[in-house]
Amino acid sequence: MQMKDSPAVLMHFEGSTIKFTLEMPRNENMVTNLDDVPVNVKVLEGNEEREYKPNMSNRKMTLGEWMQHFRSFSMNCQVDFYVGKIKFNIRSLRNTFPNLRRIGITCLKDEPNENDILSTQNLLRAFLSDVQLLELHRVPLHENLSLQHIGMANLKRLEIDNQSDLNLDDISTWNFEICSIWTIDHPKLLFDLNRFFKLWIKGSNPMMVELSISWTTEITPDWNILLKGLKAIEEEPYPEGTRKLIIKNIRGISSEINFDHIDEDVVVVFSLFD
Questions:
Q1: pTM
Q2: Where's the Sdz-33 F-box domain (predicted)?
Q3: Where are the domains positioned within the chain?
């Protein structure tokens, strides 16, 4: 589900996707009420588009009822929010989506304002306690509710894309099972990763099953910086640009670290052995 000016629901089936767009009446107050009735519902399947009047069993459905109706098809749905386009009362959203397990928050603005930051904080406060999978894409945060607070929320999966407030030193205190990070290259990145793996060897991140960090660079990474002091065992040679190593922590748990550098793309993946 995409919560924007005109909320949309994408339903994925085997080899097919159907998109329902709920067009709302113009609202000069800029706040859409979930009790409002959509003007119409557009349905897009492939290249075919059809329009439906929002009626079911001869009874008009409100936006909130539409959302609950779609969610009834699967409790494994994800709701995506777009900073700057969130025009709904957060409390009413929380009531419409109780126990929501998967959310994504995206900011498309280069310079988000204070209202955007406040809106993001309200969203996270409303849903974070129940969420198991969280995606953050360039989301404006604040010290009152920072990435550090989010990382300690016992998430099953956390995906972070180009967060300006990301500090790899903080990851050692986070509670997650799986985490995927897309970040920008900087001179201390490999040093930070080395320090993180050393902390894992000493016992940090007991919940962690997998961590992947990706970035782009025109410079060939010096993997010796990342490996310094890890006492890693390298597996048999792999194609150029790829390495696989094994490290073990004080609990006797072994993990594999994969390095891949193809063209300008670099990926480091940490994963526990089965």
A1: 0.82
A2: 147-213
A3: 1-74
